UniProtKB/TrEMBL annotation:
Transmembrane segment boundaries: 14-39, 81-99, 111-138, 150-178, 198-219, 256-282, 302-325
One BP annotation, GO: transmembrane transport
Domain ABC transmembrane type-1 span(s) in chain numbering: 111-325
Name of the protein: ABC transporter permease
UniProtKB keywords: Cell membrane, Membrane, Transmembrane, Transmembrane helix, Transport
Topology in membrane: Multi-pass membrane protein
Recorded family membership: Belongs to the binding-protein-dependent transport system permease family.
Taxonomic lineage: Bacteria, Bacillati, Bacillota, Bacilli, Bacillales
Localization (cell): Cell membrane
Origin superkingdom: Bacteria
CC per GO annotation: plasma membrane
Length: 339
């Protein structure tokens, strides 16, 4: 292979990877749109009743038919789906019936709250899980290893909402260390809220999501490090006199960091699902609370918009994991180029 060809192959491989990701994203969003639309059309939610609300009894059948005709609800399913899909492609996600605002405005206002919550919980659970996994592997079959495994297995089967309620009762109601809920102090204007106030209200939801998300990373890291410590090159390093933390740092951490990072990025969907419950328990004004309200009160445009946004968020997280993996591990780039 010529020198110019060897330089161009990684670039072509990366362009092909980006195109493949783009095709997968379009296919995913179309499938989510189609499935979400069919589920909403077959759900017991009546969009006209959800929009009119308590005044539904004052509307005559003729007025109901006029509303249905105005919204195109009297058309076939294919026509309705095509109109909705065309509006989405033009950036029109509709108007939220609950908040009386465009759906994109509602999502934009709450996105930063949820992003702060999930980013802090994701980073804390990943770091804590990795440290616990390393300690458990280094202390294999000791009481420390058994305690960490018991802790992880217990948390893996613990519902997020139950853990949130437990922390709320202990630290907010009994001890009074943290606020009962909400993202800012009650009765205070937005311009009076400081960054410290927001962080103070964020602590308990972050702890709830973090201690639930520790289990997978800790158990996975423990198993991978045990396999590394039993490999031939580690046995050779032990024969040269290396041991303890120096041995793990030199020969183990790099090999177990990549799987841990990938697993942590892959857990974004679980983190988003847990955030929905945690935000509801703590009355935290994020996307999860908006999704619950939209589902309970029949806000179809907002619910569909949040479903699409959550699919896009999870896809972005998985893509970031793949990109970091390609950047850190050159064997993946070389393997893709050879293929």
């Amino acid at each position: 292979m010529s020198e110019s060809g060897s330089k161009g192959t990684p670039l072509l491989s990366f362009i092909g990877w980006v195109l493949a990701k783009g095709i997968r994203l379009v296919s995913l969003l179309f499938a989510v749109c189609l499935i979400s639309f069919l589920l909403m059309k077959n759900s017991p939610i009546d969009p006209i009743q959800a929009y009119v609300g308590a005044d539904m009894l004052r509307i005559s059948p003729e007025q109901r038919a006029q509303i249905a005709h105005y919204w195109g609800l009297d058309k076939s399913l294919a026509v309705q789906f095509w109109r909705w899909l065309s509006a989405l492609a033009a950036g029109d996600f509709g108007v939220s019936m609950i908040y009386r605002q465009p759906v994109l405005t509602v999502i934009g206002e709450r996105f930063w709250n949820s992003l702060a919550l999930m980013t802090a919980a994701w980073a804390l659970s990943g770091a804590l899980g990795f440290i616990l996994g390393v300690i458990a592997a280094m202390k294999r079959n000791s009481w420390v290893d058994r305690v960490i495994k018991w802790y992880c297995y217990t948390l893996a089967s613990t519902p997020t909402f139950w853990m949130g309620i437990l922390l709320l009762m202990v630290f907010s109601v009994w001890l009074g260390m943290f606020p009962v809920g909400m993202g800012t102090p009650a009765g205070r204007l937005a311009e009076q809220v400081t960054l410290a106030d927001r962080i103070y209200h964020l602590i308990l939801p972050v702890i709830t999501l973090s201690i639930i998300g520790v289990a997978n990373v800790a158990l996975h890291t423990r198993q991978k490090l045990i396999e590394v410590l039993q490999s031939d090159y580690v046995l050779f390093a032990k024969a040269r006199g290396e041991s303890g933390w120096t041995l793990v740092r030199r020969h183990g951490l790099r090999n177990i960091a990549l799987p841990a990072i990938t697993l942590q990025f892959a857990s974004l969907s679980e983190l988003f699902g847990g955030a929905v419950l945690a935000e509801q328990v703590f009355s935290y004004p994020g996307l999860g609370q908006a999704m619950v309200n939209a589902g309970l009160r029949g806000d179809v445009p907002l619910l569909l918009g949040l479903v699409l946004f959550s699919a896009l968020f999870v896809f972005a997280g998985n893509t970031a994991a793949d990109l970091i993996y390609r950047w850190i591990d050159p064997r993946i780039r070389e393997g893709a180029a050879i293929r």
